[in-house]
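Q: Sequence in, structure out?
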Amino acid sequence: MFSARTPRSFAPNAWTELRMKLHLGGYGPACDLMQTDPTVLGLAPLAEGAMALALVGPVAYAPEPLGLPSARAAVAAMLESEGAPVSPEAIALKPSTSESYAHLFRLFCNPGEAVAIPQPGYPLFEPIARAEGVETRGYRLLWDGAWHLDRDSCSRALEGARLLVTVEPANPTGMVLGADDRRWLERECERRGVALVADEVFRTPTTPGTSWLAGKRRALTIVLGGLSKTCGLPHLKLAWAAFAGPEELRSEALVRFEWLEDLFLGVASPVQLALPRLLELRHVFRERVNARIAENGALLRAFSAAHPEVTLVEPQAGWMQPLRMPGIRSSEDWAMAGLDHDVALYSGDSFDFDGGSHVVVSRIVPPETMERGLRMLGHALDDQPA
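A: Exactly. Output:
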């Protein structure tokens, strides 16, 4: 009865089953190092956001498929101030980055065609693609003390692909492509007629390198961002897609994207009208996040020094921290061992890590949570099988 766009089974994996069992028994993990929601971590400017919405006042319904001109202009002004110039007319608004991906998969792919996605990478790419009837092909990001693009695997993934996704800073590795890898990737996309989607939701002015909006783009390029990571306001549901590249391709892509947008009209008017004030909140939010990451970074480095069998896979930016664990256990087994010692960690398998055992933790949890969670992970290390 049901299509293959949804999973065949919704049965939980072993880690989820154990966490549910502990929760039902009243023994849920005392320390959650997986939390990344700024609204529950004391980082989001919630009161200021509510005030910005309150100042909007009464709102008339005036739908615009690509978003209200004033809201698109506010996004363009912010991006230009941060070294990513783009015309307001080249910006489309959506409720979330995930919905932007869904539209872009519809825009470039017929059913059964493929998109190239990074591995390790964001675990929602595959289910979003499946929901749109699209296949995914992974290309590898390699770490040897620093992150690199595996060009051979990328070339294979691009064979027959209609779209390539790069995430910078990457989630969860924090990788930012170097200038040589960027030039190579753009040349390949241009040569093959493949659109390039650059997810920059975690990008800030302190992120290494430049935005994909900076400079003249040779390939059709769509850059994504949103309130969730820029301002710490995921509940207000507004994201953007900025189109760059050869004028003829860019114009046609926008016309077709607008047609798709007109089918849904997803972004609420009040948040669009409040957007200039909301975007100003990014400064205080980023200060809070940077301070939190600095504190937790010191704790993570101290933990690694005390446990030299654990390697910090250093991110260049972003909110996540991968740790390479001893190979005596698999990634999933380390995550299970964490639950056994009262700490919740991501398994590296959730992000398609290879080349060893990995867990991933959030860098934006409260420092006291990080300190306690790492202490519990240390107990799990002490309990390694012989």
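The chain has 14 helices and 14 strands.
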